[in-house]
């Protein structure tokens, strides 16, 4: 058989036709449990035989920056830390909205904000050295303070003629472009999109999802091209949907 793009993915087809995209399908592992939740766990930890506790990108972050010299080595765009990035002792900045990111961004008086941030630092600092758990929590708080103050500068440093669509995935990829172009030394940037877990109206739902993804990806790479900053960027997109063989009662 043949493999083709969804009809709504024309922008990504253009990237493929230029020779800038590779598609790897049929990737898996032996003895699949056919469980969506267990399969997602495996994809995020790369541990098919055991219940993994370390995200594979968390391990990559540790290897890239073993001395934790840059709290922005890895930045995650989403409401929470994704499992693939989680690793105790490895700082990862989580951003939901880059335009409003940072601790106490609404406080305009610089001295007042500085005093409050200093208070936060004193609150976290005593935990350092008081045991492995508290040591980790204390350093995480200090890393968050530092990362917040750095990341909030990215939108102010950014200028582009590319107009991204007003969609969640486009907003995330625009934020990723802003951080990359700010030259903070960030090596891994992560986001998600979905959900593709549809039980009805799949044709209409997936059409909208793939339109949003394709347009956002095209804008992202056009943005990097405009700034001559795309040659050292690789985007990996992956999806997983393990399913048990029995109907779950809601159409799947």
TrEMBL record:
Entries under InterPro entries matching the protein: DUF1501 (IPR010869)
Protein name: DUF1501 domain-containing protein
Organism the protein comes from: Candidatus Entotheonella gemina
């Amino acid at each position: 058989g043949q493999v083709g793009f969804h009809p709504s993915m024309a922008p990504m087809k253009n990237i493929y036709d230029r020779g800038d995209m590779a598609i790897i399908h049929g990737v898996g592992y032996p003895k699949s449990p056919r469980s969506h939740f267990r399969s997602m766990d495996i994809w995020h930890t790369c541990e098919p035989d055991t219940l993994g506790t370390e995200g594979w990108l968390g391990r990559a972050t540790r290897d890239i920056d073993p001395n934790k010299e840059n709290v922005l080595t890895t930045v995650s765009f989403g409401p929470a830390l994704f499992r693939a990035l989680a690793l105790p002792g490895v700082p990862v900045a989580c951003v939901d909205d880059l335009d409003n990111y940072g601790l106490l961004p609404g406080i305009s008086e610089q001295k007042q904000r500085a005093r409050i941030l200093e208070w936060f630092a004193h609150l976290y600092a005593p935990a350092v050295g008081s045991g492995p758990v508290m040591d980790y929590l204390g350093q995480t708080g200090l890393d968050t303070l530092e990362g917040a103050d750095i990341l909030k500068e990215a939108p102010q440093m950014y200028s582009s003629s590319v107009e991204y669509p007003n969609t969640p995935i486009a907003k995330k990829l625009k934020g990723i472009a802003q951080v990359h172009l700010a030259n903070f030394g960030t090596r891994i940037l992560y986001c998600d999109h979905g959900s593709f877990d549809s039980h009805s109206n799949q044709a209409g739902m997936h059409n909208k999802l793939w339109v949003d993804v394709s347009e956002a990806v095209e804008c992202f790479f056009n943005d990097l091209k405009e700034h001559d900053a795309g040659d050292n960027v690789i985007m990996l997109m992956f999806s997983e949907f393990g399913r048990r063989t029995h109907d779950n009662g809601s159409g799947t």
